[in-house]
Amino acid sequence: MIRRWWKTREYRRLYDEAADAFAGGRDAAAEEACARALALAESLYGPDHPELLSLLYATSSAQLAQGRLDEAEASCRRAIGIAEEAPAAEPPLPRLLMQLASILERRGDAEALRALFEQMLAGYARMRDPDAGEHAAVLTRLGLLLGRQGQREEAQPLLAQAITLREEAFGAEHPAVAEALFNAATLRPRESPVGPAEEMLRRALAIAEHPSGAGMDPCVRASILHNLAVLREEQGATEEAASLYERALATREAQVGVSHASLRPTLVRFGQLRHAAGQLTGALSLYERALVIAEAELGVGHAIPEAIKAWMAEARSRS
C-alpha cells in the first residue's frame, strides 16, 4: 500500500514536471519526464489504461518537435489504439488522429495522410452529433491537401462544407469562418467563375477587419488582401488591386518586418502591376526589395531572383 502511494505521488510529480517543461519549450526534458512517468503509470494502471493517453500524446508531441518522426508516430499510434478501446478518452480520439496527421504531413506521406483524413470523415459520417468544429478541421486539411496536389474540383466541396460547419460551430462572423472562406476562394477550380471567389474574399476581409476578428492572425488578413488584389487585377480593376497590394504589404510588414520572405509574392505582383501601368520608378523600387529577399531566401542564381532581375532590366530600358 505504501509503495503504491509513493508511486502515485511520484507519478503525479513527474506528470507536473513534464507539463512545466512543455510550457517552457524544453522538449527533451519534457520527453524524459514523460518516459519516467509513463513507466510508473504502466506499473500502476497497466499498459493499456486510458491514464496513459495524455503521457503518450505528450511524448509524441515532444518527439515530433525534435524531428524524431518514427518514434513520434509509434507513440501516437499506441495512444490511438488505447483510445479506440476506451469509453472516454483524454485527449479524445480526434485529437490523437490529428496528431498522427501532423506527423504524416511532416513526413511528406500524402497518400497515408489522405487515407487518414478519409477514415476520419467516414467516422464523422457515422456519428449522430459530431463536433462541427472538429469535423470542419478535417474537411479543411483534406481540402488543402487535395488543393496542393492540383485536385481543386475534388477539394472545393470539402472546403465549402467546412465553411458551413464553422458557421454552425462558431457563428457567421468568427475568424475561423474567414479562414474557411479564404481557403475556398483561393482553391477554386481554375475555370470556375471569379464572382463567387470575390464574394468569399470580400466577406473574409470584412470579418477580418471587424472588431470580432481582432484575434485573427494579421498574416492571414494580409493573405486575404493579397489574393483579393490578384483577383481584382485579373478582372482589370488595377487601381483597386494596387490599393489592396499596398494594404497587404503594410499589414504583413507590421507583423513580420520589411525583409521577411513572405513579402516577396506581394512585392513581385505589385511591381508587375506598376510595371504594366508604366509606373517604372515604383515598379523598380518594389522589384529591388523583392530581389534582396529572393536572393536571401533562395540564393543568387536561382530562377526566381533571375526573373526579377530580367523584369528590372526591362523596366530600366523603358525609363
From TrEMBL:
Q: Which UniProt keywords apply?
A: Repeat, TPR repeat
Q: Which domain of life is it from?
A: Bacteria
Q: Quick check: keyword Repeat in the entry?
A: yes
Task: Supply the name of the protein.
Answer: Uncharacterized protein
Q: Specify the taxonomic lineage.
A: Bacteria, Pseudomonadati, Myxococcota, Polyangia, Polyangiales
